[in-house]
């Protein structure tokens, strides 16, 4: 996807499909979209490395990425998935290594920009907390079923 394809509307549409931002209003999505920068990542590139700090999160628009923890594959991610957002929120080291398994088209979100937005828009904070809580509950349910 070329940079020219990344209109604000396209960014908002992609963010709205993501569970992490799905409860946000169009205005809030527009605020998040304004922070994002389109990027192309080559197959095999590492987006995050377990144990390292990081100040970027990635929203996958096209392509696939593999999540590994301690050398074990945990998941394959694709369009609409987010990579690295937890480190932006809590400042902790990356919990997994994520590697592109195809060429990726992503939107990058810088941690400093996200933190500024969260200070200015408390409603976005609440919605992010709700989405993260749901992800935790879903993960607990999957672990209990295994």
What is the topology?
Blueprint: H1 8-17, H2 26-35, E1 36-41, E2 46-48, E3 56-62, E4 65-69, E5 72-77, E6 82-83, H3 85-90, E7 97-100, E8 104-110, H4 111-120, H5 122-145
Antiparallel strand pairs: 1-8, 2-7, 3-6, 3-8, 4-5, 4-7
Helix pairs in contact: 1-2, 4-5
Task: Give a short overview.
The protein is of the alpha+beta class and 146 residues long.
Overall description:
- This protein has 146 residues and is α+β, with helices and mostly antiparallel strands.
- 41% of the residues lie in helices and 27% in strands.
- It has helices at residues 8-17, 26-35, 85-90, 111-120, 122-145; strands at 36-41, 46-48, 56-62, 65-69, 72-77, 82-83, 97-100, 104-110.
- Strands 1-8-3-6 form a four-stranded antiparallel sheet. It has a four-stranded antiparallel sheet with strand order 2-7-4-5, with no helix packed on it.
- The chain is globular.
- The model has no long low-confidence stretch (mean pLDDT 86).
Structure keywords:
146 residues, alpha+beta, four-stranded antiparallel sheet, 41% helix, globular
**What's the total number of strands?**
8
Rg from alpha-carbon coordinates: 15 Å
Mean pLDDT: 86
**Percentage of residues assigned to helices:** 40-55%
- Approximately what portion of the residues adopt beta-strand conformation? 25-35%
CA-CA gap between termini? 38 Å
The low-confidence runs, each spanning 5 or more residues with pLDDT under 50, are: none
- One letter per element, helices H and strands E, the order comes to HHEEEEEEHEEHH
Looking at the structure, what is the overall shape?
Answer: globular
Please state how the strands of the largest beta sheet are arranged side by side: 1-8-3-6
Count of helical segments? 5
From the helix content, strand content and strand pairing, which structural class follows?
alpha+beta
Major beta-sheet overview: 4 strands, antiparallel
């Amino acid at each position: 996807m070329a940079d020219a394809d990344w209109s604000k509307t396209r960014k908002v549409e992609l963010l709205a499909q993501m569970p992490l931002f799905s409860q946000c209003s169009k205005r809030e999505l527009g605020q998040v979209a304004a922070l994002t920068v389109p990027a192309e990542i080559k197959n095999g590139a590492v987006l995050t490395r377990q144990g390292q700090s990081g100040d970027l999160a990635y929203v996958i628009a096209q392509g696939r990425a593999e999540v590994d923890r301690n050398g074990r594959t945990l998941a394959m991610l694709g369009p609409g998935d987010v990579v690295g957002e937890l480190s932006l929120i809590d400042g902790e080291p990356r919990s997994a290594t994520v590697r592109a398994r195809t060429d990726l088209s992503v939107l990058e979100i810088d941690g400093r920009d996200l933190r500024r937005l969260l200070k200015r828009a408390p409603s976005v904070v609440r919605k992010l907390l709700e989405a993260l809580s749901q992800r935790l509950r879903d993960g607990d349910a999957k672990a209990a079923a295994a």
